[in-house]
Amino acid sequence: AIDDPTDESEASLSAAANQIYAAALVKPIPETAADALSAGVEGCRDDTNCDPAQFAEHTCRLVIKSSDFLFY
Fold first, then answer.
1. 14, 33, 49, 61: least buried by Cβ within 10 Å?
2. Residue 28 contacts by C-beta under 8 Å, 6 or more apart in sequence?
């Protein structure tokens, strides 16, 4: 759940991505995906059209399409 729908801080977006990943795969985002997570968070923060809810939706789609999810 996103506590503050206007909070686009790195910590808030990273927490949202981790919650989505953990909900789908019952484990935190692996360290090997840290660069991808960072790129996604920074991409959202740099995009004036991206908000936390939209970021969460895109993250959810990416997790569901990931090989980690498909082979879970």
1. 49
2. 18, 21, 22
pLDDT value at residue 14: 93
User: What is the pLDDT, as a whole number, of residue 72?
Assistant: 55
Closest CA to 66 of 10, 12, 27, 15: 27
Tokens standing for residue 12: 């808030």
CA atoms within 13 A on the CB side of 62: 15
C-beta separation of 40 from 17 below 8 A: yes
Q: Could you tell me the mean pLDDT of each successive run of 10 residues in the chain, 72 residues long?
A: 81 91 90 91 93 90 82 61
Nearest Cα residue to 36 out of 4, 68, 7: 68
